[in-house]
Amino acid sequence: MGKITKNTDFGIFGELNAEKAEEYDTMERIPVGLRSTIVLGDAQIISNVSGERKEYQVMIDKIYWNDTIDNKSFVIRIVDEELMQLTRWYYSRFIAVVLFYKTEI
To answer: pLDDT band for position 12 (50/70/90)?
Structure first.
């Protein structure tokens, strides 16, 4: 699939092999917004944890406006029951921290 070249406090970086890159090239591109467009409340994440690409419901509970190691861009709470079951996160109060990057499409 590829190799990880850096695993840092600000994200995981690496290289994707040519075969996997071609597969991803045919997928629908999803625009990613700037940090300034994040708002508290309902949101969706996209994951293939089930074996297929699918949207799951989350809540954005907190937004961080700085770029320090101890604070990522925002905190989400998983509220989608299916995602909790798939990942064995049985408590809807589980909180994950997600790093948000601007990407060009």
So the answer is: confident
User: Which is more confidently placed, 57 or 33?
Assistant: 57
Q: Taking Cα atoms as reference points, which of 30, 101, 96, 102 lies closest to residue 58?
A: 96
Residue 57 dihedral angles phi and psi, to the nearest 5°: -85, 135
Amino acid at 2: G
Task: Name every residue whose Cβ is closer than 8 Å to that of residue 94 and which is 6 or more positions away in sequence.
Answer: 77, 78, 84
- Gyration radius from the chain CA atoms: 15
Which of 15-24, 64-73, 90-99 shows the lowest per-residue confidence on average (mean pLDDT)?
A: 90-99
DSSP-based three-state secondary structure for 101: coil
Q: Specify the pairing of strand 95-98 against strand 74-78.
A: antiparallel
Per-domain residue ranges of the chain? 32-98
